């Protein structure tokens, strides 16, 4: 197995992990009300009193993981286009 094949395989695993993590982070966000999040129990989190700092950190992590996901996706695409691995 060449090094590029291993790198490509690792990037595929990383993008799957980032996808699952990004889905979980998005689902953890506080609902803004009136949407699907309230239908599926999002209204219960209003009583939990989530902190503004926690929501800000959740937003920050969501953006970081999303940017990393896009970077890995672009890297995989470039590797496929130029037949690396």
TrEMBL record:
Family: Belongs to the SecG family.
Pfam families reported for this sequence: SecG
Cellular component, GO annotation: plasma membrane
UniProt KW Isomerase keyword: no
InterPro entries: SecG
Biological process terms in GO annotation: protein secretion
Location in or out of the cell: Cell membrane; Membrane
Protein name, per record: Protein-export membrane protein SecG
């Amino acid at each position: 197995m060449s090094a590029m094949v291993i790198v490509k395989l690792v990037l595929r695993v990383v993008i799957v992990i980032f996808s699952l993590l990004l889905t979980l982070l998005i689902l953890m966000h506080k609902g803004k009300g009136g949407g699907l999040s309230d239908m599926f129990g999002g209204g219960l989190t209003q009583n939990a009193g989530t902190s503004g700092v926690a929501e800000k950190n959740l937003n920050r992590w969501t953006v970081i993981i999303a940017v990393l996901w896009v970077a890995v996706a672009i890297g995989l695409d470039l590797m496929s286009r130029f037949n690396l691995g």
